From TrEMBL:
This is Histidine phosphatase family protein. InterPro entries: His_Pase_superF_clade-1, His_PPase_superfam. SUPFAM superfamilies: Phosphoglycerate mutase-like. PANTHER family: OS09G0287300 PROTEIN (PTHR47623). It comes from Cryobacterium arcticum. The lineage of its organism: Bacteria, Bacillati, Actinomycetota, Actinomycetes, Micrococcales.
Amino acid sequence: MTAPTERTLLVLRHSKSDWTGGQADIDRTLNPRGQGQAQDVGSWLAEQFPVIDMTVVSPATRTRATWALVSAELANSPEARVDERAYAASVTDLLEIVKELPGDLRTVLLVAHNPGVEDLVYLLSGESIGMSTSTLAVLTLPGTWADAGPATATLQAAGRPPLLA
């Protein structure tokens, strides 16, 4: 069996976090608006991507909470891997995570933070998009994950579900 020749990378910035509690940055959770945003992302993904092979999540509370709400909307929730490198990650760190993904995975969701996610989308696609909270970018990459690099992907869609263009 040969590996698929095209991969889909779904890049999601965490949902709106709560700044009222005075917690450390890594410990901030979602505010009510962010909770609703995450559910919207999950509903959109359930319709558009019924099979997601894996999710890579930053260890921050707000990214893990975003993923929990997104995954609750999916019929088949994929394995989630918390990757310490995804918190406060540079574009280089995020690209390394993508390049190390197992070759048999076809569709992967990355839940992380700005400016890293915005920089990753720009690096891979050459297109600059704003990644406000709960913004999702859908990228297709030919070849293997290890081939990911500057201008190797095509930006298929970007926005905040359910209004994704």
